[in-house]
Amino acid sequence: MSPARSSRTALIGTLVLVFCVSLWVRGANGYRVSGSPTLTTDWFSADPDSHYHMRRLERALTDDGRVRVRDPLLAFPEFEGQGGAPIPWPAMYTRVLHTVLAPWAPTDASARARYVERHVASVPWVLGALTSLLVALAAGYLGGTRAALLAGLYHAFCFASVRYSRLGNGDHHAFVSFLQLSWLMLAARGLEPSGLLRVRRSIMFGVMAGALAGCALASWVASLLLIGTLELALLWRMFRAKPGELPGLGAFGAVFNLAAALVIWPDAAASPWGALGIINLSWFHVGFLGVGALACLPLCLMKPNNQAHGAGLRLYPRALIAFLGLAGLVLAWGPLGESVAEGVRWATGSNRFMGRIHESQPLGWGLIGGWEPLTRWLGWGVVLLPLAWWHGARRAGGALLPYLPAVLLYLLMALFQRRFAEGLAAPMAVLLGVWLGHLTRSLPARRLPHALLALALALPLVSHTATVSSTLSRSTATSLFPQTLSVERERGLRGLCAWLGTHGTDEEAVLAQWDLGHMIEWGAARPTVATNFGSYLGRDSFVDPWRFLAAVSDEDAEALCHERRVRHVLLGSDWMRNLDTMMRVLADDSQSEFSEDSLLGRLLPCAYGDEIPGRPHPGFLRLVAFGEEMSDGQSAGWIWEVVPGAVLEVSGSAGQVLRARVRRNFNGQQAQFVWMGEAVVAADGLARLRVPWSTEDEESGEAAAPLLRWTIGQRKGSAEVALQAVLSGGACTTIRDD
Asked: CATH 2.60.40.3390 spans which residues of the chain?
């Protein structure tokens, strides 16, 4: 076998190995929740962003493939007259999912929902493995088979990538990373010095790279940052290129930007986010790419052999920097000022409402950042990255040029927001693989195969010990679905969403913690007040659940429910993890302390079946469902219905306090819940108390609980509470003294 053929065979074998290992790692570390503790075939995704991609695809499947830019279930009913709230995500990822999955989607609604959930939550699993393959291919082209093996396996085990492409995660980030690495590879080929001498070749690579960059931008708007690094690379290349390379460089840059602009044009035209927004897709992004194309166009028109043109080519990069810098300052101080400021706040994770969510936390410092998280997400190769980057910089005139600013940018962004570590993983692995592959050339030839194999296997094992450990332990586990407390909670909350889906309409909102929004929208098809999009849909919709739970006055809380047309309130048992965010946002409403007299402070004893004197339960919230009991003895969550409540009237002396309580079981469960309320006797000699719980069985109307018991002064008695009275605001019946 010839050396060339042997090398190709080795590279193909390496690519197959990397792809299979990457699939294995992402499958073993998948986060799927089994439908029940005993089922091993039925599962669902627990990732909230995946839930919204599922909902968006489901809407497209039932709407002839149209991907809507507004959703009537979001921030309800604030955008009701506009067809729904604007969706922050562009539509490209949903279009791709629809193209791939629609031909085989079932027509039955229930079967289609299961099909959508399973497949949306599996697509990134394959895309993550394909990205590992591309990493190996890119490194192999630049540094040979040894570089391909090192880079591919490093990426296969990198937790930053595994986190977003493991089985069960249907978010768009794996798709974006696949596109970004694809166009980086094409740009690297297009910017090779020898290739720039052929303008047609430059145009071909520019069109392909630009189209993929446009698809990435039309899937995730932050992709503009990576496009910006290529613009910087093009500008740097203008200074270093030989005169004969400049027309090809200009052609590549012009068609790259033009192709990307044409891809995003339809989405920018349909965007509901205004003309000059930076965080959400708008005409700003088309304009940015248009400026990039125009900036490169003069290079295409100049002839290096012409003396006058040659002088212009030498001066042009400096003039371009001066012009763009001045124009940028004018725009930043003018119409784009606020958009630029908001973009910086988002990029640095300092957005006051979204800066505390997990994936927006700094990876390099802060409450959950530092050296240990940095090396866990990116591996110990991050320590060697400066050396690998410097090795690439010394070859920056070649095909490594696009990777260098990309790695610098994403490393900086990952330090501020850990979500960017996923985008860093691929180009970082390429640089590490090329550098380490270069180092192995110094080994004696007869020892090279063994040394290379040992190094290739040791690198991911040593660099990603946590991922390797979890992969091995979960691969050898007796069950694919470990039954942890978090899994039990997710299953219980999903069951509550199913209950909501059968006990309400798309005109009746659900008020819940903001991070339960997408699960409700997908699992129950009900409108939500707050959702995982957070403050992007407006501050009020994001803050209103916290205002509701922190309200001391029942009247204020009930008024908010009526304003938002809330029928049900869902509270998860893990509400404490949102307390810090709630405290921070409520500080702007002069409620910096969470009171035990707040609505949440009075709902929790009701949920746990406790009676705390002096903390009566609300009279307009009727407990109607609760999640399955978890291994710690708690319920996964609770659902209350907003009701008028039955009216209990008892006479007494002015100033006396009427106290009442109802104890009952629900749904045949052993757990017993209690409601207790208080009312003061008014000037007319009557105490009026709203009672939201019935003593009837909801299905049969027969007695299902002991009578309501009440006391006032030295008197005590009982009453019957009809369900119809609770739902209509009628009076309690058969009120008698003991």
From this structure: 644-738
Query: Does pLDDT of 307 surpass 60?
Result: no
Asked which of 36-45, 455-464, 687-696 is least confident by mean pLDDT, the reply is: 455-464
Average pLDDT score over the chain: 86
Dihedral sign, CA of 229, 232, 238, 242?
negative
Q: In 3-state terms, what secondary structure has residue 576? A: helix
Q: Determine the number of helices (DSSP H) and then strands (DSSP E) in the chain.
A: 28, 15
Neighbours of 655 (CB within 10 A): 10
Please write the tens of the pLDDT for every residue from 625-662: 888 888 887 888 999 999 999 999 999 888 899 999 88
How are beta strands 708-712 and 509-512 bridged, if at all? unpaired
What's the CA gap between 75 and 25, in Å, rounded? 38
Distance CA 509, CA 534 (A): 16
Q: Domain 644-738: which topology? A: Immunoglobulin-like (2.60.40)
Strands 566-572 and 509-512: parallel
Using one digit for the tens of pLDDT, what is the confidence trace for 459-506?
A: 777 788 889 899 999 888 877 777 788 888 999 999 999 999 999 999
Integer Cα distance of 420 and 412 in angstroms: 9
Radius of gyration over every alpha carbon of the chain, rounded to an integer in angstroms? 30
Between CA 387 and CA 394, with CA 391 as vertex, the angle to 5 degrees is 140
